[in-house]
Design brief:
Elements: H1 5-8, E1 13-18, H2 22-35, E2 41-48, H3 60-67, E3 83-86, H4 89-92, H5 94-97, E4 107-110, H6 117-124, E5 133-136, E6 141-144, E7 147-150, H7 151-159, E8 162-167, H8 172-176, E9 181-186, H9 191-201, E10 206-211, H10 214-236, H11 241-262, H12 274-286, H13 288-298, H14 305-313, H15 320-334, H16 341-350, H17 358-363, H18 366-375
Parallel strand pairs: 1-2, 1-4, 2-3, 4-5, 5-8, 9-10
Antiparallel strand pairs: 6-7, 8-9
Helix pairs in contact: 6-7, 10-11, 10-12, 10-13, 10-15, 11-18, 12-13, 13-14, 15-16
Residues 19-24, 50, 73, 111-114, 116, 137-140, 170-172, 316-317, 319 line the site of nicotinamide-adenine-dinucleotide.
GO cellular component, one term: cytosol
Binding site for NAD(+): 19-24, 50, 116, 172, 288, 317, 319
Keywords: NAD, Oxidoreductase
Length: 376
């Protein structure tokens, strides 16, 4: 007797990566190295590419598939032959949309700059069926009338998916060349699903730990970019290491207070995971937000972040400036501006209302910050 369709159905998980920038490409590489060896996953990893034409006239997708390299966002690194670039969002996620028999527990990894996620979700609404699990590697938030919306919540609400997060001290170019680092998966309820994500991302040089605190992990990853902008101002003004350490400490305190005031469920221990203090340190020492903010301060705030981003990052996106604006909106709306002088000052400097030197003059308002301490 022929096996039933149920019996024929694959029980392996299929992974699609939505995004192919610097971190998106590294994430695809990490995952692809694991799907080849883990029996519970299909080898092939689809990677959705926001299509663009390179100076050579070729499409980025064609070049990635021909050379196995993302020549624009991660040059010099082979992604793995089982990574297939696809410019068609609906097609890249085909396995998610045609989730036959309910046995193919597919996995969707979102990793684009956060400002594009609302549009991407709109394109996917109603198209994802079956037991699909999602994870967001995206740092940032959307601010809506009703308040801030984390990207994992946007994905859950718009696509009806359970969504974990993965954040950490993860400068993509360092992981691309397999230097040791750590990351944190934040999950809501299912430890089993969290462990599956841990398995999918872990390698001997990339150690992943799961904690039950989606909001805490995601807010750490999001807010540290604002502190990195402040650290960049300090560097650009050549204020030295003590000042930078002070700004990082004040920033960490505001990160914790803001997170806990928004979500009382956020755990103190999360700030000691890779997604917390470790990510804050690496971003303030080496990330792109720090670098562009350094240039902004050296230019006395006379060249805009947009201009510097276009000139210095070659298509990569800054997250800290838009996150500072979003955080500022939340602070203004809730009457919390005075409680978060560092966050507020970063935004005021970014939009030119204060000079870069204000980062030290305005950030250290201890009496008001102590209010925050009491309220958390
Ligand atoms: N790069 C890192 O080191 C790093 C590390 C950890 C987390 N992250 C986070 O990962 C996320 C993705 O960052 P990244 O480094 O992969 O990207 P990136 O900044 O390197 O690249 C920008 C990407 O956005 C795409 N894009 C441009 N216009 C678009 C549009 N209209 N719609 C959709 N996509 C568009 C580009 O094609 C490109 O893939 C961000 O939230 C970032 O904060 C980055």
């Amino acid at each position: 007797m022929a096996p039933s369709m149920e019996e024929e159905a694959p029980s392996k998980s299929r992974v699609t990566v939505v995004g192919s920038g610097n971190w998106g490409s590294v994430a695809a590489k990490l995952i692809a190295s694991n799907t080849l060896t883990l029996p519970s996953f299909h080898d092939e990893v689809r990677m959705w590419v926001f299509e663009e034409t390179l100076p050579s006239g070729e499409k980025l997708t064609d070049v990635i598939n021909r050379t196995n390299e993302n020549v624009k966002y991660l040059p010099g690194i082979k992604l793995g032959k089982n990574v297939i670039a696809d410019p068609d969002l609906e097609n890249a996620g085909r396995s998610m949309f045609l989730c036959f028999y309910g046995t193919d527990a597919n996995m969707l990894v979102f990793v684009t700059p956060h400002q594009f996620m609302e549009g991407i979700c709109k394109r996917l609404v109603g198209k994802i069926k079956g037991d699909v699990e999602a994870i967001s590697l995206i740092k940032g938030m959307e601010v809506k009338m009703e308040g801030p919306c984390m990207i994992s919540t946007l994905i859950s609400q718009q696509l009806g998916l359970n969504c974990c997060v993965l954040m950490g001290a993860n400068i993509a170019n360092e992981i691309a060349v397999e230097k040791f680092s750590e990351a944190t998966v934040g999950y809501r309820e299912s430890r089993e699903i969290a462990e599956k994500w841990v398995q999918l991302f872990s390698t001997p040089y990339f150690i992943v730990t799961a904690v039950q605190d989606v909001e805490g992990v995601e807010l750490c990853g999001t807010l540290k970019n604002v502190v990195a902008i402040a650290a960049g101002f300090v560097d650009g003004l050549e204020m030295g290491n003590n000042t930078k350490a002070a700004i990082m400490r004040i920033g960490l305190r505001e990160m914790k207070a803001f997170s806990k005031m928004l979500f009382s469920s956020v755990k103190d221990s999360t700030f000691f995971e890779s997604c917390g203090v470790a990510d804050l340190i690496t971003t303030c020492l080496g990330g792109r937000n720090r670098k562009v903010a350094d240039a902004f301060a050296r230019n006395g705030g006379k060249r805009s972040f947009d201009e510097l981003e276009a000139e210095m990052l070659q298509g990569q996106k800054l997250q800290g400036v838009s996150t500072a604006r979003e955080v500022y909106e939340v602070l203004s709306h809730r009457g919390w501006l005075e409680l978060f002088p560092l966050f507020a000052t970063v935004h005021e400097i970014c939009v030119g209302r204060l000079p870069p030197s204000a980062i030290v003059e305005h950030s250290e308002r201890i009496p008001k910050l102590s209010l925050v301490e009491k309220s958390t």
